[in-house]
Design a protein that fits this description.
CATH class: Alpha Beta
Shape: globular
CATH superfamily: Class I glutamine amidotransferase (GATase) domain
Number of domains: 1
Order of helices and strands: EHEHHEHEHEEEEEEEH
CATH topology: Rossmann fold
Helix content: 10-25%
Distance between the termini: 7 Å
């Protein structure tokens, strides 16, 4: 990786943030809690959040946009731009335009996005860019092995939304270090077909969630992981189907520390 990396030292301010509308924000976005803890300072990075979908579209996307944006400003970590339409994807996910960003977040994307040159996008990550995938980022580019190898896995199926017991597999990582050895949370839990080497599991299903989906493997099915991709960093979490997760301080910290970790 080139350049200095922001560390996760110290106690992270947990951002319960207002949903005041800003330029380009989708109308009617559900509001997280209005209590805010702000870290003094100016964000040092710009992050591009992609929410365009070519398949299923989650109704949580407006809440996700608001949550990611406000976590960046409240923690003085990054500014946020949004890539919401097919035209945005064609114009913003080019090698030239990506030079303005330090990380890209695929937030509940689905299907084959119309990125003009997928190989160039993956090359940008490999060259030192950061990539964060949230929930259905793994339901994206099913027919592109190069994307799935970068991400580390592909969505296969899920059961009903239930509360499940989750195991923390790497308590040293800042995206999960605030969690206990196990915790319970309600969401739609994905099962995966895994791809690519060097995937480091952060959290996994501790036991069968009894959601009607396949039972977890003996070691538990991973739900979040991180990996390096040449000189780039990749963080993925399957959690994020439900808008209500953004009211949970544990989840907000999971996301902001995942973004912090990938920033070059």
């Amino acid at each position: 990786m080139t350049g200095p990396r922001v560390t996760a030292a110290g106690v992270l301010a947990l951002a319960l943030v207002s949903c005041a509308s800003c330029g380009g924000e989708s109308p009617g976005a559900p509001s997280p809690s209005t209590t805010t803890t702000t870290v003094a300072g100016t964000p040092s990075a710009r992050v591009l959040v992609v929410t365009h979908t070519e398949g299923f579209r989650h109704d949580s996307i407006p809440t996700i946009e608001t949550g990611i944006r406000d976590l960046g400003t409240a923690n003085a970590l990054y500014f946020t731009d949004f890539c919401r339409t097919a035209d945005d994807v064609r114009q913003m996910l080019t090698r030239q335009n990506l030079a303005s960003y330090r990380a890209v977040v695929f937030a509940n994307t689905t299907g084959n996005l119309p990125i003009p040159d997928l190989a160039a996008f993956l090359s940008w990550i490999a060259g030192g860019g950061g990539f964060v995938g949230i929930h259905s980022a793994s339901d994206t580019y099913h027919d592109q092995p190069s994307y799935l190898a970068m991400l580390g896995g592909e969505f296969v199926t899920h059961g009903a939304i239930v509360e499940a017991e989750i195991r923390v597999d790497d308590p040293s990582h800042p995206a999960v270090s605030h969690l206990g050895a196990t915790f319970r949370i309600a969401d739609e839990f994905y099962r995966f077909r895994f791809a690519g080497p060097d995937r480091r599991t952060l959290i996994s299903l501790a036991r069968d969630p009894n959601d009607g989906g396949p039972a977890p493997a003996a070691g538990g099915d991973p739900l979040a992981w991180h990996r390096t991709f040449s000189s780039g960093r990749v963080f993925y979490t399957a959690l994020g189907h439900r808008s209500e997760l953004w009211q949970d301080a544990r989840y907000r910290r999971h996301i902001v520390e995942g973004i912090r970790w990938v920033l070059p």
